[in-house]
Sequence to fold (133 residues):
Amino acid sequence: MWSASSGVSVRLECSPAVPPLSQDLALALFRIVQESLNNIAKYAGARTVRIALDAEADWLCLTIEDDGVGIAPEVLEKPRSHGIIGMNQRCAQFNGEFSVERVAAGAGTRVSARIPLAVARAAKEQGTGPGLA
Ligand SMILES: Nc1ncnc2c1ncn2[C@@H]1O[C@H](COP(=O)(O)OP(=O)(O)OP(=O)(O)O)[C@@H](O)[C@H]1O
Ligand SMILES: [Mg+2]
Fold:
């Protein structure tokens, strides 16, 4: 659907190493993907986007990478708008690390959310977590 309406093709990679996720964490990750795709459709002028979910060492890693124009350096220095700040906050609620960066000059944007696997597992065991809308 999104691919058809935006004209951007999507490659989705989910590693078998990813453990079962709590609803709250799955929703937070979904919201990050959703906002990233919104931004890509609005600003990137990309041809393709790669969405990857992986578990590496002690981290659950979500990456959304496009091959568009690349996010402006001044936005990276001081994000003011809700999209990037909101994604950062969702990640922080799981003690995660969030970053947005240019892949290379004129070669796209990479959004990365990394959640400690221990936190992801604990959230699943408790069946609860931070309340997220
Ligand atoms: N994938 C991208 N490629 C190029 N520029 C981007 C990309 N994602 C974000 N940007 C730039 O970063 C700015 C900030 O993004 P952010 O999502 O925080 O705000 P917004 O989309 O402008 O507004 P909001 O999300 O609050 O509706 C955007 O206005 C845009 O200039
Ligand atoms: Mg936005």
About this structure: The chain has one domain: 2-126.
